[in-house]
Amino acid sequence: MLNRKSVALVCATLLPTTALADWTGGYAGAGYTSFTNLSYDITANIDPDVDFDNTNGFGGFVGAQFEQNNLVFGVEMALEFPAAAEGLDGQATVDYLFDLKVSGGAVVSDILFYGILSASTISGTYGLNEIEAGGIGFGAGAAFKINPNLSVSGEYLSRFAIQEFVETDVEATADTLTLRAAFHF
Questions:
Q1: pTM of this prediction?
Q2: Which end of the chain lies in a sparser environment, N or C, as judged by fewer CB atoms within 10 Å?
Q3: Would you report the helix, strand and coil content of the chain in percent, each value rounded to 5?
């Protein structure tokens, strides 16, 4: 039979401690992504705009963070690949998204809430043209430390990028919702 001390001891070992809330250091991980808005808009309106069907994908990331008085600042590189992003009967594709992110946030009850700014690239094809649209992104996320070396998070990021050609421009947009797992070292 368990007494009150035994129950308290078991509960105390299961609860997160302040050591779990230490976000300082490097990390790497992978994620499962839902691409909620993916499109190429043509500024000259010669060709039709392309709205890609919502698709899923995967990606990886590596970064580092610094925590000071429950405020966390970080930098991260991330690469995401949509599983099937084709339009115009295969004449338009989105091959990958690359983001260089800076983030800042606060730890509240062992959960890190953060905002994101990114320099982003949307890469693919449009007809015979290779797309390497560069631009910016912004978003938000929340992360939880399962133990000192493992965290899970959810992140939303909205990107706007442009590729300039001689007679027209391609404006690319990509919004993603990503479930992530990271190993901290």
A1: 0.83
A2: N
A3: 10, 70, 20
